[in-house]
Design a protein that fits this description.
354 residues; alpha/beta; Rossmann fold; seven-stranded parallel sheet; six-stranded parallel sheet; 15 helices
């Protein structure tokens, strides 16, 4: 048995959800990696916080409306009640109450301050981030956003890793494609439908491409959303799969003629990395952190419909280009490792505790 006094007690705090997206994939993967690489001097506890009125399972509940309006001292007091007083709190979302004592905060990006359909930050969010012992971001772009928008000048940049589902999954079979209503060849977009995902640009691009490439289909993976429906209703050869689990998305990516990431704002851009590790040519917007993540391993384009369509057409018609993107994508994706990210998180934890 280890002496509890020699252990660094870290409490991870996340928002409970039944609709996991990129942020939740990061939380799951980094927590699993930290448990793998941390030595016996570390102990970890996960606290998930849900709204007091919600039916979502969570280990703690709180009135979210009161938290949204609370100033930092009140937010910290709520954090003391919810999280206790461990050696260190790692808060995975700025919308959660701040910790009473030392804390590390992960901020992926700040879309609520850039887009009207991305919700709002809490009243204490900016002050809480500035007070944190360390702030982790997944890209230099995200760090620049924090400095410009909420005055956090010093951050630790730790990129995401590659999820095992995308490394190990085999490509989807013809029978599985038929079950989903998909006929190859096809393009794949796997993300949400908020404004920053730029589905309007993709819809404009598809209007051009569907006429030029009459055997090509467009597959849209993501939770049902009326905005996606409005943009693509009546468009030819568009398949909306709904939300799929990671192995299913990975299997589709391995078969796709291209993975398209037209987002105008991403703090990282997991679908681009996932497409690369699956060996799909990636066409991504030259915006946000996407150029930083993709490097020369994706075809970067402007986020308007014509530029997206032209980029996709280059990939479809230039086999040398497509093969080069596949090869460079796999090589680049190999640099993104969750265990490496976990070791960097432990370095940040030590700095916060010191």
């Amino acid at each position: 048995m280890f002496d509890n006094e020699c252990m660094n007690r870290v409490t991870w705090v996340a928002i409970a959800t039944t609709n996991p997206m990129g942020q939740q994939r990061y939380e799951h993967e980094i927590q699993a990696a930290l448990r793998r690489v941390a030595g016996p001097e570390w102990s970890f506890e996960l606290v998930t916080v849900a709204s007091a009125r919600s039916n979502i399972p969570g280990t703690r509940r709180m009135p979210m409306r009161l938290n949204a309006a609370a100033q930092l001292p009140v937010s910290r007091a709520a954090g003391r009640v919810l999280y206790g007083n461990p050696d260190l709190v790692h808060r995975f979302d700025l919308r959660l109450p701040a910790a009473w004592g030392r804390e590390v905060v992960t901020v992926h990006d700040l879309p609520p301050l850039r887009f009207p359909d991305e919700g709002t930050l809490t009243r204490s969010a900016a002050a809480g981030a500035r007070r944190a012992a360390r702030v982790i971001v997944p890209s230099r772009f995200a760090g620049e956003e924090l400095e410009e928008l909420i005055g956090v000048a010093h951050v630790d940049v730790i990129p995401y890793g590659v999820i095992a589902d995308y490394v190990d999954t085999v490509e989807v079979t013809d029978d599985q494609l038929r079950d989903l209503g998909i006929r190859p060849p096809f393009l794949l977009h796997a993300a949400g439908a908020s404004l920053r995902k730029n589905l309007s640009g993709l819809a404009d691009a598809w209007h051009l491409l569907s006429v030029r490439h009459t055997k090509l289909s467009l597959v849209l993976c993501g939770p049902p959303d009326v905005r996606r429906d409005r943009l693509f209703d009546g468009a030819p050869r568009v398949v909306r799969t709904g939300r799929l689990e990671s192995p299913a998305v990975a299997a589709l990516m391995r078969r796709a003629s291209a993975v398209v990431v037209p987002s105008t704002y991403e703090g990282f851009g997991l679908p681009a990395l996932e497409g690369m590790v699956c060996g799909a040519p990636v066409v991504a917007a030259r915006r946000g952190a996407l150029p930083e993540v993709c490097g020369d391993a994706a075809l970067l384009v402007e986020p308007d419909g014509k530029a997206i369509a032209d980029g996709i057409e280059y990939v479809l018609t230039d086999h040398t280009l497509a093969d080069g993107l596949r090869e460079r994508g796999r090589r680049r994706a190999a640099d993104f490792d969750w265990d490496d990210a976990a070791r960097e998180h432990l370095r940040v934890y030590r700095l916060a505790l010191s």
